[in-house]
Write a structure and sequence with these properties.
heterodimer, A: alpha/beta, Amidase signature (AS) enzymes, eleven-stranded mixed β-sheet, B: Histone, subunit A, two-stranded antiparallel sheet, 3 helices, 2 strands, 33% helix, flat
C-alpha cells in the first residue's frame, strides 16, 4: 500500500477496499503499522505499538470476509488509543513515570466496543501526564510535535491522538477531554475532535483525572468518521454508573439533513480577547453557515468569565482525590523507603511531574479545612450558573458557534514557564465540560502562517445529531 | 494572594508529596498566582445557588443502578501483577508497626 493510499484512508473506503478484496485486513494492518512506525519519530505521537493486537483484530475481519459475513461497522479501521485509556496486556502509562511499566489487567469499555466492531488497535498515544496540560509538553516521555508545523505543540492533553490522525499514522483515534483536551488539539492539528455529552460514552477504563468532567471522544480526519466511532462506543454501560441510558441517535443519517433554518448563537463573550487572525477565520465560517440557510444571532453566556477559575478549583480538587491511589503499593516502581509514610511521599515526589504536583497541591489546598466552602463549594455553585447559561441559550438557539482556542498552535516551550498563560488556552473549551454538553472542533481555515484553526459547535445534552449535522454540512460545503 | 513556604509544606504533607526546597519556592509562586486569579469568584453573588456536583440528567433515582449479578473478579495474581513488591498473595510495604 503506497503512502498516498494510506493517507487517504477513511472508514468508508476501507470498507469498500475490504469488500472488493483490493486488500485484506492483514495487509492493511501491516501497511498501517509499518507506516506509523516509520513516521512516528518526527512527532513522538505513539508511546507503544501493539502489532499483535492489531493483527489479531485483522484476522477476525479477514475471517468475516472469508465467511461472507456482513462487515462490522469499523471493520479493519486502524485505531490509536490515548494512553490514559486502559488496554488489557498493553502498557498504559498515562504519560507518567508513575505508570511507566503498568500493564492493565482489563480493557476500557470504549476499547472493547470499538474492537467488537472490527477496529484494529495500532498502539497507545502520547499525552500530557494524567491528561493534565494543553500542549503535550507535560509527558514524561517527551513532547509531541505538531505534524503541521514540527516546531509547534499539537495541543493537549490528547496531543498524540490528534497528531497521529493528522499525520496519517492512525485513521481514527480516541482521546479524553476534561477541559478541552480533545477539541483544542483537534483545532491545533487541523482535524475533527468530538467531546460527547457527559455520560454518553462509558468512562470505565479511562484513568480518572476529574470524574465529573472526564469524557472519552474520537478524533478523525472528517466528520463522518468521527461520528461513526462515537456511534460504535456510545450508550449505557453498567460498569460506569454515570453512563446514560438515553437512546443513541443514528448519526450517519441525521447529519445528512439540511441545516436550513437552524438557529445558531454566537456568544459574545467568546469573541472578546480573541486574536484577530482567528476571529477573521471564525467570522468567515459563520458567513458560510449563513449561506447554507442557518439563522445567526448574538447570544450571551454571562458567566463565561468565571469558568476558568471554577474549572481549576473543581478539576484539581477531584484530581487530588483521584490521584491519591498512586501510593507505591499497587503500581510499578517505588524508591527505597524505611517507613510507610516515606514510601508514599518518596514515590509521589519522585514519579509525578511538575504540573501534576501543582494540580494535586492546588486541589488539596482548596479542599483543606477552612477553605472548602470558600473555594470548592463556591466553584460548584458557579458551575451551576455556567450550566444555566447554556440552558438559557438553548431556549433561543439550536447550537452555539465559537472559536476553540484564542490562538492557533504555539511554539514548543513558549508557555511552559507560565501555568496561568497555559491554562488560558482552554478558556473557550472548558465551559462545555463544566456544563456537560456535547461539543466538537471542525477545521475551518488557517492563520496567515498556515496554522489550522477549528470551529467549535455546542448543542444541548444528547443532541450530538444536530452538532454533527452542522459540522457535516459545513465540511461538505467547504471541501474542494 | 501569596502562599508562604510553610503553608506549601503543610499542604504537601496533606497530599503525601515530597517536595524539594526548589519545588517549594516554585510552588509558592505558582499557587499564589493561580489563587489570585481564582479570587475573582468572590465578586460573584452565589447566595441560594445549588452546588453542582455532577452533570444532571432528567433520569429517575434508580436509573444508574445495575442488576446485582455475581461475576468473577480479578484473580489474586492479576491484582498483584503490577505491584513493586508482593509475596504470599499480598502487597508488601515497609514495616508499619514496630514490635
Amino acid at each position: 500500500m503506497s503512502t498516498p493510499e494510506i493517507l487517504s484512508l477513511t472508514i468508508g473506503n476501507i470498507r469498500t477496499g475490504l469488500a472488493s478484496k483490493s486488500f485484506s485486513a492483514r495487509e492493511l494492518a501491516e501497511a498501517a503499522l509499518g507506516f506509523a512506525q516509520k513516521e512516528n519519530p518526527s512527532t513522538n505521537a505513539y508511546l507503544t505499538f501493539s502489532p499483535e493486537r492489531a493483527l489479531t483484530a485483522a484476522a477476525k475481519v479477514d475471517q468475516q470476509i472469508a465467511e461472507g459475513a456482513k462487515l462490522s461497522a469499523l471493520a479493519g479501521v486502524p485505531l490509536g488509543v490515548k494512553d490514559v485509556i486502559v488496554t488489557k496486556g498493553i502498557r498504559t502509562t498515562c504519560g507518567s513515570r508513575m505508570l511507566e511499566h503498568y500493564i492493565p489487567p482489563y480493557d476500557a469499555t470504549a476499547v472493547t466496543r470499538l474492537e467488537t466492531q472490527g477496529a484494529m488497535i495500532l498502539g497507545k498515544l502520547n499525552c500530557d501526564e494524567f491528561a493534565m496540560g494543553s500542549s503535550n509538553e507535560n509527558s514524561a516521555f517527551g513532547p509531541v510535535r505538531n505534524p503541521r508545523a514540527l516546531d509547534r505543540v499539537p495541543g493537549g492533553s490528547s496531543g498524540g491522538s490528534a497528531a497521529a490522525v493528522a499525520q496519517g499514522t492512525a485513521v481514527v483515534s480516541l482521546g479524553s477531554d476534561t477541559g478541552g483536551s480533545i477539541r483544542q488539539p483537534a483545532s491545533f492539528c487541523g482535524i475533527v475532535g468530538v467531546t460527547p455529552t457527559y455520560g454518553r460514552v462509558s468512562r470505565y477504563g479511562l484513568v480518572a483525572f476529574a470524574s465529573s468532567l472526564d469524557h472519552i471522544g474520537p478524533f478523525a480526519r472528517n466528520v463522518e468518521d468521527a461520528a461513526a466511532v462515537l456511534q460504535a462506543m456510545a450508550g449505557r454501560d453498567t460498569l460506569d454508573s454515570t453512563s446514560a441510558a438515553a437512546p443513541v441517535d443514528d448519526y450517519a443519517t441525521q447529519m445528512k439533513q439540511s441545516v436550513k433554518g437552524l438557529k445558531l448563537g454566537l456568544p459574545k463573550e467568546y469573541f472578546e480577547g480573541l486574536n484577530s487572525e482567528t476571529a477573521d477565520v471564525i467570522h468567515a465560517a459563520v458567513k458560510q453557515l449563513e449561506s447554507l440557510g442557518c439563522e445567526v444571532r448574538e447570544v450571551s453566556l454571562p458567566n463565561t468569565q468565571y469558568a476558568l477559575s471554577c474549572y481549576y478549583i473543581i478539576a484539581t480538587a477531584e484530581a487530588s482525590s483521584n490521584l491519591a491511589r498512586y501510593d507505591g503499593v499497587r503500581y510499578t516502581s517505588r524508591p527505597d523507603s524505611n517507613t510507610l509514610s516515606d514510601m508514599y511521599r518518596n514515590t509521589r515526589g519522585a514519579n509525578f511531574g511538575a504540573e501534576v504536583k501543582r494540580r494535586i497541591m492546588l486541589g488539596t489546598y482548596v479542599l483543606s479545612a477552612g477553605y472548602y466552602d470558600a473555594y470548592y463549594r463556591k466553584a460548584q455553585q458557579v458551575r451551576t450558573l455556567i450550566a444555566q447559561d447554556f440552558t438559557a441559550a438553548f431556549e433561543q438557539v439550536d447550537a452555539l458557534i465559537t472559536p476553540v482556542s484564542p490562538f492557533p498552535a504555539f511554539k514548543i516551550g513558549a508557555k511552559v514557564d507560565d501555568p496561568l498563560a497555559m491554562y488560558l488556552s482552554d478558556v473557550y473549551t472548558l465551559t462545555g465540560d463544566l456544563a456537560g454538553v456535547p461539543c466538537m472542533s471542525v477545521p475551518c481555515g488557517e492563520s496567515p502562517e498556515g496554522l489550522p484553526i477549528g470551529l467549535q459547535i455546542f448543542t444541548k445534552h444528547f443532541d450530538e445529531s444536530t452538532m454533527f449535522r452542522i459540522a457535516y454540512n459545513y465540511e461538505q460545503s467547504t471541501t474542494r | 494572594m501569596t502562599l508562604s513556604d510553610q503553608e506549601v509544606r503543610y499542604v504537601a504533607d496533606l497530599a503525601n508529596l515530597r517536595l524539594s526546597d526548589e519545588e517549594v519556592s516554585r510552588m509558592s509562586h505558582d499557587l499564589g498566582q493561580i489563587l489570585t486569579h481564582i479570587e475573582q469568584l468572590n465578586s460573584l453573588n452565589t447566595e441560594g445557588v445549588e452546588p453542582m456536583a455532577q452533570v444532571l440528567f432528567n433520569a429517575g433515582e434508580t436509573a444508574t443502578l445495575r442488576p446485582d449479578v455475581p461475576h468473577t473478579p480479578l484473580s489474586n495474581e492479576e491484582a498483584l501483577a503490577n505491584a513493586p513488591a508482593s509475596g504470599a498473595g499480598y502487597f508488601k510495604v515497609p514495616k508499619v508497626i514496630e514490635r
